[in-house]
Amino acid sequence: MSENNLPLSRFKVLDLTTARSGPTAVKQLADWGADVIKIEPSRKIIASGGGLSRDRHGYEMQNLHRNKRGMTLNLKSEEGREIFYNLVKNSDVVIENYRPDVKNRLKIDYETLKSINKKIILGSISGFGQFGPYSSRPGLDQIAQGLSGLMSVTGMPENGPTRVGVPIGDLTAGMMLAQGVLLALLEREKSGEGQWVHTSLLEGLIQIMDLQAARFLMAGEVPKQVGNLHPVYLPTGVFPTSDSSMNIQSPGQVFWKRLSAALGKPELFEDEDFKTPEDRWNNKDRLNKEISELTMQKTTAEWVEILNDAGVPCGPIHSVNETFADPQVQQLNMNPELEHPVIGKINVVGQAIKLSRTPQKMRFTTPEVGEHNEQILSELNYSEEDIEKFKQEDII
């Protein structure tokens, strides 16, 4: 498949992002074919510890910044900004995740970019939103998890608030910004104009609170931690087996009847304590004890086969190495391979979305520092003499 056949190959994206949320957004566009130019500080700033990371060949940078071209550019200098503005003239999208005031100081805010190219779309991610009393605060993932209410419903009640085991605020905001950019590109086909698309770690986490947030907004209920239990429908949770533990989710009456029969104790379905979802929640301690005593009699593998045959949702609880060894996961192409010119073959995390005619394609690895400077500047019609001057003056 030609790179030009990828879904987003007609779009050019200027990537000013750092950390994780912004790169997550850009990755969605880069993996699907957009011509992404990753812009980093000048070489001198990178040499002093700035830029993406000192461990450029490590798993984090290689996973986050694949499928991009790379250039260095000092946006604090007038000439550096002029080069950036020339890039903006022929680009579709700019993405940044600075604190809200930084883009204004650098003169790369939406109104400035719009005056250069009315079709440009600026995508912005911040910690808590572009406006409001917290907008200027430094915003990292765990802080947003706490503000959003997510930590108040995560973990075991006896252990207090617990962060989710991945930077879910960064990842959610990144994927939502990518969706927003695609929406803006679609709208631009009608209006002929770009717009400013922005979200934040806090907004993204509130949206994915979903059921728990809706419980409060519509029913006035303040949800609390329930550990591995479902907040409403039981039996759902982690149950011990003879060799480990497993997940079982049996929320409705049909599933509950199937589960009690498959466990070899159909009378549980008729038990007055477990008749309705409300009954099962009110008697959850006895319910979980009854089920646990049964699940401990067989191995996880045995129960997975028995319960799936009975139509009961269930499964093992994998470590990450077990996940990628699982035969189902191996069918999903979630660890595509790339050939890195320095470190050799590597695997990165694949895209969850699958398109039948235009599948994901890992085109190239994370660029080296300023790897494509000459190529990109030549495309802007800068001469070799200009490029050498930029190097000498710490513009690139």
Description:
It is a single chain. This protein is α/β, with parallel strands linked by helices and 396 residues long. It has two domains: 3-208 and 333-392, 3-Layer(aba) Sandwich (Rossmann fold), CATH 3.40.50.10540; 245-316, 2-Layer Sandwich (formyl-coa transferase, domain 3), CATH 3.30.1540. 41% of the residues lie in helices and 13% in strands. The protein has 18 helices and eleven strands. Strand 10 and strand 11 (344-347) form a beta hairpin. The protein starts with 11 loop residues before the first strand and ends with a helix.
Task: Summarize the structure in short.
The chain has 396 residues and is α/β, with parallel strands linked by helices. The protein contains 18 helices and eleven strands.
Topology:
Elements: E1 12-15, H1 21-31, E2 35-40, H2 43-47, H3 59-64, E3 69-72, H4 78-89, E4 93-96, H5 102-105, H6 110-116, E5 121-126, H7 141-148, H8 168-191, E6 196-200, H9 201-219, E7 236-240, E8 245-249, H10 253-262, H11 267-270, H12 277-282, H13 284-295, H14 300-309, E9 314-316, H15 320-325, H16 327-330, E10 337-340, E11 344-347, H17 373-379, H18 384-392
Helix pairs in contact: 1-8, 7-9, 8-9
Estimated share of beta-strand residues? 5-15%
Given the helix and strand composition, which structural class is it?
Answer: alpha/beta
Q: Under the CATH scheme, which architecture of the largest domain would be assigned? A: 3-Layer(aba) Sandwich
For CATH, the homologous superfamily of the largest domain is named as: Crotonobetainyl-coa:carnitine coa-transferase, domain 1
In CATH, the topology of the largest domain is named Rossmann fold
One letter per element, helices H and strands E, the order comes to: EHEHHEHEHHEHHEHEEHHHHHEHHEEHH
| Overall 3D form | elongated
Estimated helix fraction? 40-55%
Question: How would you name the oligomeric state of the polypeptide chains in this document?
Answer: single chain
**Rg over C-alpha atoms, rounded to the nearest angstrom:** 26 Å
The number of distinct structural domains comes to: 2
Outline the biggest β-sheet.
Answer: 6 strands, parallel
Task: Count all strands and give the number.
Answer: 11
